[in-house]
Design a protein that fits this description.
322 residues, 8 helices, four-stranded antiparallel sheet
């Protein structure tokens, strides 16, 4: 507990405003909570957030010592940054986040601040579930990646054990990820399997599709099912049996039905015609299909999660239902 006596210079301020200035590392929502819980006392008693301080008031703050530290560039940023997350699911071990198209998952050469990882860490810091000053090495981490212009579910681990288990389950293919995509034209047959080999061109950051094995090529397998067709477009559900870079985008382009809006593998003329920039692709469903022991995460076995809405489905097919 720390005590402060209000001076003439601080008199007249609201209690919550003073608290925000005096403890810049204390997130505003947490400050309001502490006032409600009477962990901030005025003259020995609980008070309201809009109480106007008077010269000579004695403030008693029952607040963790870390919030009294001098702000540094790093900790002030974590406190002040306003996280915006679309949370599909959250528990004590992990979160499922609905990443919107346009956001990068990790800092890169094009974006250092407005990334999914930054929003995640600020969110957990402000909830007091994680602090870089109490941990020797672990930081909340993302278990899977999604391209900047693709939306969908990203798994975030809150602790090292959850991260270890999820990474292993992903490597062992004990997760089922389903995507919705809009492609140009109609797939023939309307339901089936795309199976070929992808070779990544690091210089172009693009992959090439081969029908037979090639040196450095990796097997890529996607199951697909056409859900609806309209105005020269098809809404397709895809399930990945492998997880290669640009797998869905490259395979459907090779099949003659590139994704709508895809600037790398698609048809720019058709993209302009339909007014779409950025591939119409969304990782909308995730199933924890564990076939071996999941330890700390065993309670997630066979659970399935789906995002509430995929914007491009409604835009091009008139309904968000799929």
């Amino acid at each position: 507990m720390r005590e402060f006596t209000v001076t003439k210079n601080d008199a007249g301020q609201r209690l919550d405003r003073w608290l925000g200035k005096a403890l810049p590392l204390l997130p505003a929502p947490l400050a309001q909570k502490y006032i409600r819980l009477k962990r901030v006392k005025v003259n020995g008693k609980g008070s309201q957030r809009d109480y106007r301080l008077q010269s000579g008031d004695l403030l008693q703050l029952y607040i963790n010592d870390e919030f009294f530290d001098t702000p540094t560039e790093e900790n002030a940023f974590l406190s002040i940054f306003k996280p915006h997350l679309n949370i599909v699911y959250e528990d004590e071990n992990l979160l499922l986040l609905d990443k919107r198209p346009g956001m990068v998952v990790h800092p890169d050469e094009t974006e250092r601040v407005n990334t999914l990882l930054t929003h995640l860490q600020a969110y957990l810091y402000q909830k007091k579930e994680w602090s870089p000053y109490r941990e020797n090495s672990f930081a909340p981490a993302l278990c899977n990646r999604i391209d900047r212009n693709t939306g969908g579910i990203v798994i975030a681990a809150k602790n090292a054990e959850a991260l270890r288990i999820m990474n292993q389950k992903i490597r062992d293919r004990e997760m089922e990820k389903s995507y919705l995509a809009i492609v140009l034209g109609r797939m023939n047959p309307p339901e089936g399997k795309l199976e070929n080999f992808l070779l990544k061109d690091e210089a172009k950051k693009q992959v090439k599709v081969f029908r037979s094995p090639v040196p450095g090529g990796r097997t890529a397998v996607t199951l697909y099912k056409t859900l609806r067709c309209q105005d020269g477009l098809s809404l397709v559900e895809c399930r990945l049996l492998t997880g290669r870079t640009h797998q869905i985008r490259a395979q459907f382009a090779d099949a003659g039905c590139p994704l709508l809006g895809d600037g790398k593998y698609g048809r720019e003329r058709d993209n302009r015609r339909y007014g779409r920039s950025g591939q119409a692709l969304y990782s909308y469903k995730l199933r924890f299909s564990f076939s071996t022991d999941a330890g700390l995460l065993e309670y997630l076995r066979d659970r399935e999660f789906t995002v509430e809405q995929v914007d491009f489905v409604e835009e091009y097919f008139g309904s968000a239902r799929h």
